[in-house]
Amino acid sequence: MSNSTNLARSIVRQLIELGIQDVVLSSGSRNAPLSIALYEAAEKGLIKLHVRLDERGAAFFALGISKASSRYVPVVCTSGTAVANYYPALLEAHHSNINLLLLTADRPARLRKTGSNQTTDQSNIFGSFVRASFDTTENLDVSTCLSVQGPVHINLQFDEPLLEENDSDWLSGVRIRQLERPNPKAIDINIESRRSLVIVGHDRAGFSVAEIESFASNLAAPIIAEDPLVFEGAIAHGSIVLSDERARRELAADHVFVIGRTTLSRNINSYVQGAKRAIVIDPRTEKIDTSRTSDEIYIQIPQLKKPVEIDQSWHDLWKKYEALAAISLSVLPDWSEAELAAMVAEQLESDTALFISSSRPVRDLESFAVPRSGLITYANRGLAGIDGNISTALGIASQHSRSYAVIGDLAFLHDVSALASPTKDNLTIIVVDNDGGGIFSTLGQRGSKGFETIFGTPHGIDITSVVTGFGISCQQISSAKELHIALQQIYAGLHVIVAKMPDRDANADSIAAVLKKYSQLVLL
Fold it and tell me: N or C end of the chain, less CB within 10 A?
C-alpha cells in the first residue's frame, strides 16, 4: 500500500474513533487519498461527508457545524491557494475559540521553492491563529493534536502514487471514544454589594445560558444581554437604556461583570468603562485576548461564597428605564429594519435555530427585540465579518431540523456563491435589502464627501432574480404584514425572503428618533 493511502486511512480512522461526525470536503487532486478514504467511511455510515465547491465557503460551513455541535469539524482541501482560502473562517474560529480542524493536503517538502506546480510553503501558513500546527509525511496521533480548544492545522504531505487499488477492510473494528479535557479548578469569590450587573456578550464566551443565569441569580443582579433571544429575564433594549449619560450615571453599579466581549453597542461599552469596578469573565483572556484589561479577570465563571440578598429597589430602577426605552420605540415607522428584527424575534417558534449576520441585523436584534427564551442563536462575533454568512448558516442548519438566518444584503451578496451548492436542510434566509451598507448611515461617516460611493455602496441588484437564477425558491416582501405572513409559512429546504426596506438614511433617522425620544423621557 502506498504511504499516501496508508496515511490518509490512518487519519480518517482516528477521526472516526475520536467521535468526529461531520467532515467538509472541497475536491482536488493532491487531497485524493483523503477524499477517497472519507468517501469510503461515509458509505459505511461512519461519518457525514459534506462536499462544498469553494474552500472559503467550505471553511465557514464547517465553522457553522462546529458552532452548532461544539465538536471538532475537519475541513479538507488540496494544496496551494485552496489552503489560503481557509483564512477568513480560521480567523473567526480563532477569535471565537471554535473547534475547527484544517486538514490540508500538500506536496512533499522537497518540492517547495523549486517552482513545482501548485506548491508553496504550507508548513506554518496559519501562524499563531491556530492552537497547534503539524506538518508531516508520517502517521501522527490525532488525539494529541486535538487536546486543545480552538482551531488546529494538520498539513499532510502526500507523495506519489496518490491512488492505489486496495480492497482491504481498513474500517473494521472501529471503536468510538470521546476526547477528554481537564476541568479547571473552581474559583471562589466574595461579593458583599447588592448592586451588581451582569453584561453578556453575544457569544457568551462559550458558557451556557444556564450557567450565566445561575451566576446572575446568586449575585441578585439584572442581566443585559447582547443576545436577548436566549435570556428571557434580561433587561429589554439594553443599548437604548444606556444610551443616555444621565441614565448611565443613575444606573451605575458597584460591580459590573462582563461575560465575553461586548462588541455591539458603544453605549454599553461606555457604561462598562465608567463602572466603579469591572470584572471580565472570558477564557480567551488566557491565550487570545491576553492584553485585555479590567479590575479583575477570570477565565471561568467564579462561584460565590454565599448568595447575595436581592435589592428590589435596584431591580426596580432598571425596570423603570427599561419601560422608558420601550415607550421610545413608539416613534418607529410601521415598516423598518428595527420592526423586522422585533417581529422575527417574537414570531419564530421555540427550538428554532437563528443565525444573525454582523453589521446592522445583529445590532437591531440587540436593541429592538423583546427578551425571550426558546431560540438557539448564532452569530460570527469573533471578528464580526460579513463574509461567509450564508455558508455558516448552512452549516448550522445541517445540525437543526428548522433554521432561519437574518442577513444584510451586502453580506448576502458577499457569499452568494454558497447558493451554488445548497443543502437539503430546512433553512430560511431573510435578506434585509436596503441597497447598500446601511450601518454607515448610523455612524459618523454619514454625510462625508463621496459617502454613497465609498460607504453606502449601492449595488442595484435584484436579489430575487439572483436567487431564482440558482434554482432556489424566493419571495419578496415590503411590509410588516407580508413579513408576518411569511414567518407563518413552513418552507422545505433552502428558501430566501428578500425584505425590501426603506432607504438607508430614513432608517438611520428612525433610530436617531428613538434615542432622542428616550433622552426626553429620561428628563421628565
Answer: C
Domain match, 325 and 343 both:
no
Query: CA dist 506 to 333, 368, 500, Å?
Result: 10, 17, 13
Grid cell of 431 as nine digits: 435578506
Q: Which residues contact 110 (CB under 8 A, 6 or more apart)?
A: none
Q: Does residue 124 belong to any structural domain of this protein? A: yes
Task: Tell me which of 313, 329, 345 is where a domain ends.
Answer: 329
What's the chain's average pLDDT?
A: 95
CA distance 348 to 230: 13
Domain total for the chain? 3
Does the pLDDT value for residue 2 go beyond 90? no
Answer yes or no: do 487 and 339 share one domain: yes
Q: Which residue range(s) make up the domain with 429?
A: 332-515
Task: Render pLDDT for 350-401 as a digit per residue (tens, 0 to 9).
Answer: 999 999 999 999 999 999 999 999 999 999 999 999 999 999 999 999 999 9
Q: Which residues pair with 116 in a beta bridge?
A: none
One-letter amino acid at 394 equals L
What CATH number did the domain enclosing 55 receive?
Answer: 3.40.50.970
CA atoms within 13 A on the CB side of 520: 10
Residue tagged 460565590 (cell numbers): 304
State if pTM tops 0.90: yes
460-515 residue pLDDT tens: 999 999 999 999 999 999 999 999 999 999 999 999 999 999 999 999 999 999 99
Let me know if residue 171 belongs to a domain: no
CA distance 313 to 320: 10
Question: Do 120 and 24 fall into the same domain?
Answer: yes
